[in-house]
User: What shape does this take?
Amino acid sequence: MEGAEAASLLGERGLGRRAQFKTYRRRWFLLAVVSLLNCSNAMLWLTFAPVADKAAAYFHVSLEMVNWLSIVYLLISIPFGLVATWVLDSVGLRYTVILSAWLNMMGSVIRIFSVLKFLGLNSQSYWYLFTGQCLCALAQPLIIFSPTKLAALWFPDHQRATANMIASMSNPLGILIANVLSPALVPEGKHIPLMLGVYAIPAVTACAVATVGIHEKVPPTPPSASATNSSSQPFLMGLKMLLRNKPYIILAVCFGGGIGMFTCFSALLEQILCEKGYSNEFAGLNGALFTVCGLLGAFLLGLYVDRTRNFIESTKICFCLSALASITFAVTSRFRHRAIMLAITSSLFGFFGFAIYPIAMELAVECSYPVGEGTSTGLIFVASQIEGVILMILLQALTVRVSEDPSSTCALDQDGALDWTKPQDLLSTPYLHLHLCLDQVCHKDFMASQ
Assistant: This one.
C-alpha cells in the first residue's frame, strides 16, 4: 500500500515537472528572424568582394580601399566581440536582436547614400559607403552570437542542435548568395547602385519584422529543465580561466587562424582570379562551390563524429587535407585556362575546411568547461578576427602592381591591377603550420584537461 502511494506521489511530481515546461510556436518565428539577420549581414559584408575591380573603378579608389570594406568587419569585431557577449548575457536576447537589426538596416541604407547623384557627394561617396559598412560590422557579433542563446532559451533539448544549425548556417548562406548575386547584378560598374538597393531589402525587412514581432526576452514558461537551471562562470572570471587554459588557447589560435584564412579567401578570390583572365562570374561560382561543399562537409563530418566521438582525429585530418587543398589552389591559380581544376580545389578546400567548424566549436566547449558557451566561442571569434586582419594586411602588402594584360578580366583601378602570386604562398603555408601545431600538442593537452 505504501509502495502504491509512493509511486502515485512520484507520478504526480513527474507530471508537475512536465507541466512546468512548454514550447511556443513563435520560437520558429524568432529563429526565422535571427536567420534572416545573419544571412543579410553576411551578404552586406561580402557585397563588393566578387566585384572588387568594378567597385574600385566606380568609386575611383584603389583595390586596397575596396578591400577595407571587408577588413573593417574584422577590425570592429575585435573589440566589439567581447562587448557583444556581455550585451547578450546582460541585456537579453530581445534587445540584442533588435539592436543588431537596426544597426544592420541603418548601415545598408547609408551605403545607398553613397550612390545618390543628387546628394553631390563626389569624392566623399566612398566614405559614406565605408560608414555604412562600419555600422553593419557593429551588428555582426550581436547577430553571430544570438543563435546559441536563442536555442537555449526557446527550444527543447531535442531541437536545440537543429535550431542552432539553421541560424548559424544562414551566415555562410549569405556568403553564398553574395558570391552568386553580386556578379549577376553588376556586369558593369554602372549597376552598383542597383546592387546596393537589392542588398538593402533583406536588411530593412529583418529590421521591421524584429522590431514589430519580438516582444519577450524569454518565453513565459521555459522549454526544458536545462533552460531553467543553466549556469556558467561570470564573464570576467570565465575570460581569465580561458586565458590560463593551454589546450583552449592552442585550439583558439589554430581554429581562429583557419577562420581568418577562409575570410581572406572569400574576400580576395575575385582579385586573385581576374588577373589570370577568369571572369567575375567564375570567381563567384568558385566562392559558391567553396561554401556549398563546406556546408556539406560540416554536415557529414558532424554525423560521423556524433557516432564515433573521434573529435581530435577528425580535426587533425581535416586540417591536413585543407592545407593540401589550399596549396593546390595556390599553384593552380597561377596558370590560365585551369577552370575545372580551380573549381575542384575550391570545392575540396571548402569541404574539408568548413568541416572543422562544428567539431572545433564542440572541442572548445568541452575543454573550457565550466566557462559559458558564449564566452568560449566568443573568444575564438575575436581570435579569428585578429588573425584575419593581420593576414589581410600582410597579403595586400605583398601584392605587386602589374601593367595591363590583354588576357586579364580585371576592371583596372586608378593604380592598375594586382599580382597575388606571393600572397597566395603566404595564405597556403600557415595552414600546414597550424596543422603541425595541433598535431604536436593538442592531443596531449586536451586529454589532460579532461
About this structure: The longest strand covers residues 400-402. The mean pLDDT is 79.
